[in-house]
Amino acid sequence: MAREIGIGTISLGWMGTLHTRAYRRLLDHYPECELRPRLVVAADTVEDRARDAADRLGYEGWTTDWREVIEHPEVEAVSIAAPNYLHKEVAVAAARAGKHIWLEKPCGRYPSETYDIGEAVEEAGVVSMIGLMYRHVPVVEYARELIAAGELGEITHYRGYFLADYAADPNGALTWRYKLDGAGLGVLGDIMPHSVDMAQNLLGPIESVSAQRETFIRQRPEVPEGMGTGHFVVEGGDMGEVENEDYVGGLLRFESGVRGTIENSRTCVGPHVRMSFEVNGTRGALSWDFQRLNELQLYRTDGTGDRGYRKVHAAPGMGDFDRFQPGAGISMGYDDLKVAEAERFLSSIADGRQRPASIRDIVSTMRVVDAMDRSCNTGRWEKVEEPKPARAPDPRVATGERRMGGDE
User: Fold this and answer.
1) Coiled-coil intervals in this record (predicted)?
2) What is the pLDDT of residues 107-166, one digit of tens each?
3) How many of the other CB atoms lie within 10 Å of CB of 47?
4) Three-class secondary structure assignment of the chain
5) Which of 98, 113, 114, 320 is the most exposed place for a label (fewest CB within 10 A)?
């Protein structure tokens, strides 16, 4: 019989709601999980959303003050789906209160804030789970196994990209996501962590980078602080300045000697969410695209005379696929990946064995992002460095109280 664990959730936009659904579905797919989620309390500064969480999502209580979630004596684990500018304050407070945390990337506005969260989590000895869910895709886990087993020979090339169109409309509202004191970095913080984590998950540490950035849409319609959640269009109104980047592209050197490229955009017309990679070795190659989540393209030079990729479908035996579907050709979806993430989070709490992706994984990722940020400024190759002690706040971030607003 699984014991109950009290759950609190902070911010109830799309991602906070998705965390909640993942908890509710957990035992349907992982009945042997030792912990049974109990939805104790949810917080959002928008009172209607907070009330809705209690009524519709099944929380026992609600509040408009995130601190009450952390201080609640029956909350053992906290889901943090708040905007970037609250990540450090909320996550550090939760860790110091002895609460386990499930936190969405990028874990702060800048790498320095990620490092501070990492220190707090390590000092408190709590379990962490970071929202880098693409690594849990069954065919991605299969690809990792093939690479590790040497099935592709010596790896020589890597290409990773995340091309999105969520900010392609110039009338997209100028929310916190486009401000230095709200989001901090632009695509370097918003989607590059997914690309970097995937590259290192498959091929190991990145040693150095050379990167460039651009802001293609430099002004957007202004909206009141805290208005809306996610991405929405505003017709007319005053225009304000976009303060962070729309695009980043770069070259990679892995510690193993592999060379690679990486590219991210939030204003790329055509692709919607093209999170993809391609790996080439001396005896084969493989590629994957999130928009065809359940398919891996695999090429082998195995002496058969075949020349070209073949499609490999997700199937039982690959990762957690059979937790969700009985056979190849029946598709898993994005929400399923968050259920898998919830299972790894609660199982890590239950037995004390930390599953990835943990705070250490995002710290490793943001070290690469940090080097890319520096390279964009210097125009030179930059080494991936260890976090430096006694870090000062990033000078690009203004201080001051902000409303929670909405998450992704």
Assistant:
1) none
2) 999 999 999 999 999 999 999 999 999 999 999 999 999 999 999 999 999 999 999 999
3) 11
4) CCEEEEEEEECCCHHHHHHHHHHHHHHHHCCCCCEEEEEEEEECCCHHHHHHHHHHHCCCEEECCHHHHHHCCCCCEEEECCCHHHHHHHHHHHHHCCCEEEECCCCCCCHHHHHHHHHHHHHHCCCEEECCHHHHCHHHHHHHHHHHCCCCCCEEEEEEEEEECCCCCCCECECHHHCCCCCCCCHHHHCHHHHHHHHHHHHCCEEEEEEEEECCCCEEEECCCCCCCCCCECCCCCEEECCCCCEEEEEEEECCCCEEEEEEECCCCCCCEEEEEEEEECCEEEEEEHHHCCEEEEEECCCCCCCCCEEEECCCCCCCHHHHCCCCCCCCCHHHHHHHHHHHHHHHHHHCCCCCCCHHHHHHHHHHHHHHHHHHHHCCCEECCCCCCCCCCCCCCCCCCCCCCCCC
5) 98
Query: Which of 185-199, 246-260, 298-312, 348-362 comes out lowest in average pLDDT?
Result: 298-312
Picking from 170, 11, 133, 14, the residue whose alpha carbon sits closest to that of residue 84 is 11
pLDDT in tens, 164-187: 999 999 999 999 999 999 999 999
188 φ/ψ angles, rounded to the nearest 5 degrees: -60, -35
Give residue-wise pLDDT tens across range 218-250.
Answer: 999 998 876 665 688 888 889 999 999 999 999
Nearest by Cα to 367 from 399, 342, 348, 391 = 391
What domains can you pick out in the chain, each with its CATH number? 137-333 (3.30.360.10)
63 close to 41: Cβ distance less than 8 angstroms: yes
Structure-token pair, residue 128: 């962490």
Q: How far apart are CA 296 and CA 195, in angstroms?
A: 17
CB 366 within 8 A of CB 360: no
Phi then psi for residue 264, to 5 deg, are -135, 140
Query: 41: closest CA among 3, 72, 14, 87?
Result: 72
Q: Is-above-0.85 flag for pTM?
A: yes
The identity of residue 99, as a single letter, is K
